[in-house]
Amino acid sequence: MESSSPGDGTERSSLIKVDPGFHFRPPPDPHELSTFITPDSDLFQTIHMGAAIIDHNLWRLDIHGLVERPYSLSLEELKALPPTRITSFHECYGSPLKPPTEFVRRIGNVTWTGVKLSTLLRKAIPLQGADFVWSDGLDSGSLSTISADRYQKDLPLSKAMCDEVLVAYEINGLPLDVKRGGPVRLVVPGWFGTNSTKWLCSLAVRKGRSTGPFTTTFYNELVPGDESGKMRPVWEVEPSSIIVNPEPGAHVKGPEVTVWGWAWSGDGIESVDAEVDGDGLWNGALLFPRKEFEWQKFEKQAFLLPGEHTIAVRATSCQGLQQPLSGRRNQVHRVTFEVF
User: What pTM was computed for the model?
Assistant: First the structure.
């Protein structure tokens, strides 16, 4: 590898080209997400400005900024470090061009393999006063009317030092492909996917937040319930859930019907409650605990007479946040089906 200084811009020389344009591949419907681990082929894809095509032999990751020891890693050197695997839900926040009031279910549950970001940062030794890590992708282009020479996000240093945050090179045991952000991407379990920078090439320790469009113009929202107009970054995932079974329109043998699905949030789910036919009586479901950052399975036995019924489920996080009933991207999921 040619001699260069970390953060001097030459880390971008591994870029061959950017296939331009926004790309979104939706996930399957909730009733099709029946496996604990979501195959990569069933996981949503979101590409904001275009997919970065990269020469893996030239790729390097620079760790620099407000650190004592800036340095660079090749792909081979990164993979030689002790690997960490973590299973985590992976959720897309939704379009940054729309208010978060529409029902969104862009979710899956996967296992990532990579190196702890904290390991890389500790080697560089962040300086006193530094409080954010800016991550750069090799993609560039336009989203809506905004152009950017790179996709840049930031993480509070306190989050970046958490053990679950990875510089990842595998998903479900296989190398990351181009559309998944390969060869290397950031993974921030518990936070929305927008924070997990794809085609990663640079990690800069800084004082203060990034001023790029993906932290200023895009991916900020009004704080729910705050009438002052206060904004917050799209970071930690709020509680949400989906019903996998029964599927919409199903004909189910009664009277005992098994309702089950997945629930998730950044801090974990404490409880899931189910409501039948809008009666306002929310009764607890059996909830399986989480070990890492994976989604959690819930089950509920409902005794239903023949006819059409609607089941709704509502998750509550360990911090006590509840899914809203309506008007929010993570509003409760309802399924209508027939019992015979």
Answer: 0.95
